[in-house]
Amino acid sequence: MSEWSGRNLQMEEGYWQALLQEGEFAASSGEAPSQGIEMLGGPAQNRVPSDGRTAPLDDVWMAAQEIFENNGTLELEATGYNRGGLLVTWRGLQGFVPASHLIGFSPWLSEEERRAELARRVGQRLTLRIIELDPERWRFVLSERITTEEIRRREALLAEITPGEVREGIVTNLTSFGAFVDLGGVEGLIHISELSWGRVEHPRDVLKRGQRVQVYVLNVDRERERIGLSLKRLLPDPWETVEERYYPGQLVEGVITNVVSFGAFVRLEEGLEGLIHISELAEGTFLHPRNVVQEGERVTARVLSVSRAERRIALSLRQVDKPNGWWVQE
Question: How far apart are CA 25 and CA 115, in angstroms?
């Protein structure tokens, strides 16, 4: 159940009681229809929609659940009202929009004014968000106010967010190409290449869903509502000062992170990897670099060359034991 449904539980309970006691009021006649109340009883899968259609209601409830979980919206027409709010129908399901969740509905109206205002809204199309869903109790409750507030928040955020800013958000999804972060109504994407200065196999190796993170805003496309984000830009780029820490001939320690047909990559520090070319792995012949090293193995290697501009460090295993001055620079 959402936080909104909890706040309005009394109002919603009052609606269901009122529905049983006084029925529903349609826009055309203002009289209670002959159908609709009876469908509140019995197992959900055996009920017949109020419009008389037979429908696989289990499938409808499942579709509604998917919309609910994905924070989707529904465009529905108000088909009736009762003292608690408006009635809507979606694919045979009758739903309820509490008056407290209608935009511009005053809580200070008299009973007569309240009914008149609800009757006036029957026939209008509403943009709604599902706030409570319970097939066992036949509860399908929606809100207009939440949807509108979220749209306003989204528009305001898109208007004010600027490249170069640092924002806080919550990781909502991890995919093979990056991580989505909710910035407070708008989601931005951290592409996998922007997660770290080093190699990242999958975003889940760096982040987890629900994690709160600080992100750097790379770019904003307001028309397409797309925001590019970065984690690594909040950290110093280790390649900027690489030539101050590494030099040809130096012996270094690292961990093998990836073995490919042409050699092996070694992580020297966070965000910094060097390559041991296949020709520098070992003396003699071998079928594949995996015959020499494995991922996760810690090795000592000799630095052959360092290039800040090319973001490249060439390493050697084969020349580790050679005395100073006898190793061959790349």
Answer: 10
